[in-house]
Design a protein that fits this description.
This protein is α/β, with parallel strands linked by helices. It is 38% helix and 15% strand. β13 and β14 form a beta hairpin. α3 runs parallel beside α4.
C-alpha cells in the first residue's frame, strides 16, 4: 500500500524529538530546582549554578575544550551571529575581510551580508558539484586584512562534510581565526577543537535530541586567545559575552543530549547510515532519472538529498501525505526559488525543484524507511504519468536541445 496510515518523521536535520532520558534530566530544573543560576544568595541559585557548571564541563569535554570556553546561547543562529559579528567588531582594527562559502546556512550568510553593508569585504568561496570548497582557492583568498574564516562542518541540505582539520590547519598557519558551524555534526561526527585548530564553534541542542531554544558557542581562550564583542548586553552573564538569564533546564538537557549521542555514536551512526543506504537503494532501483546531491562518500550518515527529474518537489510533498521530509525549493514571497545550496553545486533549476531531503534519526525504523520509499515511488510515478517532459525523455528526446515556442 503506497499511502501510509501513520505519520513518518524523516526530517531529523530540521529538528529532533527530545529523547525521553534528556527530558527526565531536565524536569527537576523546571520544577523543584528552578532557581536562577545567577542568584548567589541562596540554595536555589547554587543548585542551578552547579547544574550549569556540570553541563559546561560535559559539553566542553565533548569537543576537547575547557569548561570556561563554552558560552551558552539561545541556539546556533545566535552563536553564529556572536561569532561573526563579535569577532568582526573586536578585530576591525586588524582588517575588515572575512571568508565564507556559498553553501553555508543563512545564519552565516546573513550576518556576513550585514557586515558587507557596513563596509566589510566578504569573499564567498564557490563549491564543486559535491559541495566542497577548493583548499587552494581558500589559501588564495586569504589577505593581510582577513580576520575570520567561517566554514560549516556538515551541510544541512546535502550532508557534505568539509575537511575541517585541513581548513583549520590553513587558518592557524596564516594567523586567521577559524569558525565552524557544527550544528549538524555535534554528537554525530568526531570533533576535537585542538587537533582541528577550531577557534570558534557553534552548535544547537535541538539537532541532537535536546530541547529547542538553547545552544552554545565555543570560544578559544589560549593559543590564540579569541576575544569577541558581545551582541547582547545587560547583566554581564557568561563573562560578559552573553547577557540574559540562563536557560538552566535547556543547558542541562543539551549536555545530557550530547552525552547520550557520544555513548551511542558509533552504533547509532552505523545503523542510521544503513537505513539511509536502504532508502537510497529502494528509490534508485525503482525510479529512473534520479540524482543524489552532495558527496556520497563524505556526508552525514543521516542525509539523503535526491532529485527526481520531471517532478516538482512541492507537488511531491503534497502526494507524500503523512511523511515529513523537506523540499529542495523554498517559498519566497513572490516566487518559488530553488535551493541556493543546490544551485551552488551546479544543479539546474528544474532538477533543484525536484529535490527532496530525507533525514533519518535515532527513532527511525526499517519499516518506516520501506513505507516512506513505497509512498515516494508511488508519488513520483503518479506525477510523471502527467508529465509530457518525462514522456519525451522516455522516447529518447534530448530535452536540452528542444526549441520551445514562445506562443
Amino acid at each position: 500500500m503506497s499511502q501510509p496510515q501513520r505519520r513518518i518523521y524523516l526530517d531529523y536535520q530540521a529538528t529532533t524529538p527530545v529523547d525521553p532520558q534528556v527530558l527526565d534530566t531536565m524536569m527537576p530544573y523546571l520544577q523543584g530546582s528552578f532557581g536562577n543560576s545567577a542568584s548567589r544568595n541562596h540554595a536555589f541559585g547554587w543548585e542551578a549554578e552547579k547544574a550549569v557548571d556540570q553541563a559546561r564541563e560535559t559539553l566542553a569535554a565533548g569537543i576537547g575544550a575547557k569548561a570556561r570556553e563554552i558560552v551558552f546561547t539561545s541556539g546556533a543562529t545566535e552563536s553564529n551571529n556572536l561569532a561573526i559579528l563579535g569577532a568582526a567588531r573586536m578585530y576591525a582594527p586588524k582588517g575588515k575581510h572575512l571568508i565564507t562559502c556559498a553553501t553555508e546556512h543563512k545564519a552565516i550568510l546573513d550576518p556576513a551580508l550585514f557586515l558587507e553593508n557596513q563596509g566589510w569585504d566578504v569573499t564567498v568561496l564557490a563549491v564543486d558539484e559535491k559541495g566542497h570548497i577548493s583548499l587552494e582557492e581558500l589559501v588564495a583568498a586569504i589577505r593581510e586584512d582577513t580576520v575570520l574564516i567561517s566554514i560549516m562542518h556538515g551541510n544541512n541540505e546535502v550532508g557534505t562534510l568539509h575537511d575541517i582539520a585541513a581548513i583549520g590547519a590553513i587558518c592557524r598557519e596564516r594567523g586567521v581565526l577559524f569558525h565552524t558551524d557544527a550544528t549538524q555534526t555535534l554528537g554525530k561526527e568526531e570533533i576535537d577543537v585542538n587537533s582541528m585548530n577550531i577557534d570558534l564553534l557553534s552548535a544547537s541542542a535541538h539537532k541532537m535530541y535536546g530541547p529547542k531554544g538553547v545552544g552554545m558557542l565555543y570560544v578559544r581562550r589560549r593559543a590564540p586567545r579569541v576575544r569577541l564583542e558581545p551582541i547582547v548586553h545587560g547583566g554581564g552573564h557568561e563573562r560578559g559575552l552573553r547577557s540574559g538569564t540562563m536557560n538552566v533546564p535547556g543547558v542541562v538537557g543539551m549536555a545530557e543530549a550530547l552525552r547520550q549521542c557520544q555513548v551511542q555514536r558509533e552504533q547509532e551512526q552505523a545503523r542510521i547510515g544503513g537505513l539511509r543506504d536502504r532508502l537510497q537503494e529502494l528509490l534508485t532501483d525503482a525510479l529512473d532519472y534520479t540524482q543524489i546531491n552532495g558527496d556520497v562518500e563524505s556526508r552525514l550518515a543521516c542525509n539523503l538529498n535526491i532529485s527526481f527529474a520531471y517532478v516538482e518537489g512541492e507537488s511531491m510533498l503534497m502526494g507524500m501525505d503523512g511523511i515529513a521530509v523537506s523540499s529542495g525549493s523554498a517559498c519566497t514571497s513572490a516566487s518559488l526559488e530553488p535551493s541556493y545550496v543546490l544551485r551552488a553545486l551546479g544543479v539546474g533549476d528544474e532538477l533543484a525543484h525536484s529535490s527532496i531531503r530525507f533525514s533519518l534519526g535515532r527513532f527511525t525504523t526499517l519499516e518506516e524507511v520501506e513505507e516512506a520509499a513505497a509512498c515516494t515511488i508511488s508519488a513520483v510515478r503518479r506525477l510523471r504519468e502527467m508529465s509530457p517532459l518525462y514522456e519525451m525523455a522516455m522516447e529518447g528526446v534530448d530535452l536540452s536541445k528542444v526549441q520551445w515556442s514562445g506562443h
